[in-house]
């Protein structure tokens, strides 16, 4: 039997860095949402540890043991003796190392498929523990629903019922290494981070409309944007181009970059921008999508 699932792109609508832990990782406070665009993963009968990849970004990745799909499978097998598994096929539609958690989404998708095959609930402690070990963004990608994540990604707040946002996801075709961006922030282990941007306040009543949500988000930010722009100056150019699009209400970077998103009040404005941008910047990856 073949099991399949989508691996939606993760978007950090806001991201505040609280400080750096003694072990070098950074404590975050981030409102995360998920996009309509994503990878696809399937699991079929076959040899565990085996996988194939197709899709527009297949050539950016190997099918070796470093692939996060296989890493997640291996780690779960260590937690659960006798785990049933198989061979994976990944359709890679998201740019790699791009701040929208493609690898994390794939790893989480692998865990969801293995949970289905082995009749495990998603809340199974072995799944959660494995997710956290595979990557900081994997726990939030397990359920792939909008929420605030804290700690280094292991503390998940309640699911947020956000109004749908019409967005463009844009990447300049530049892989940016997450660790390099955190390094460029320049915090020492144990050091706190001065408040530069406000975190999203999830306790307050959720905004009822996209327009209200965008207003709330405008008061927040992404603390990794400045260090990422130092690592990859193309990000600054992209943010200026997005802000100048007709109807763009907010342009911001996701995660550690380089992917940025532009938010619009309605789908007509985002669709028009999606048509216009490729003429101005033919090399950029541009995806109109809904975030929720
Ligand atoms: C920036 C975000 O995308 C926001 O959602 C994530 O925190 C990054 O999550 P991720 O890509 O799953 O990150 P990992 O693969 O676990 O870590 C990559 C590297 O980034 C740094 N890292 C990551 C997460 C974090 N909270 N603090 C860190 O300092 C560490 O140097 C780590 O070695
Ligand atoms: N299935 C996979 N998809 C994407 N990247 C993978 C995968 N397996 C391994 N990797 C490696 O993981 C690294 C980070 O990939 P990923 O796409 O998750 O980064 P990201 O988009 O920056 O994510 P984040 O927003 O979590 O920082 C890359 O160096 C990539 O080579």
TrEMBL record:
Pfam families per record: GHMP_kinases_C, GHMP_kinases_N
Active site: 10, 137
Domain named GHMP kinase N-terminal: residues: 67-142
A biological process from GO: isopentenyl diphosphate biosynthetic process, methylerythritol 4-phosphate pathway
Keyword hit for rRNA-binding: no
Keywords: ATP-binding, Isoprene biosynthesis, Kinase, Nucleotide-binding, Transferase
Pathway info: Isoprenoid biosynthesis; isopentenyl diphosphate biosynthesis via DXP pathway; isopentenyl diphosphate from 1-deoxy-D-xylulose 5-phosphate: step 3/6
Top-level lineage group: Bacteria
EC number: 2.7.1.148
Key word Transferase present: yes
InterPro entries: GHMP_kinase_C_dom, GHMP_kinase_C_sf, GHMP_kinase_N_dom, IspE, Ribosomal_Su5_D2-typ_SF, Ribsml_uS5_D2-typ_fold_subgr
Residue ranges of every copy of the GHMP kinase C-terminal domain listed in the record: 212-277
Catalysed reactions, as listed in the record: 4-CDP-2-C-methyl-D-erythritol + ATP = 4-CDP-2-C-methyl-D-erythritol 2-phosphate + ADP + H(+)
PANTHER family: 4-DIPHOSPHOCYTIDYL-2-C-METHYL-D-ERYTHRITOL KINASE, CHLOROPLASTIC
Family per record: Belongs to the GHMP kinase family. IspE subfamily.
Role according to the record: Catalyzes the phosphorylation of the position 2 hydroxy group of 4-diphosphocytidyl-2C-methyl-D-erythritol.
Protein's UniProt name: 4-diphosphocytidyl-2-C-methyl-D-erythritol kinase
Biological classification of the source: Bacteria, Pseudomonadati, Pseudomonadota, Alphaproteobacteria, Hyphomicrobiales
Designated gene of the protein: ispE
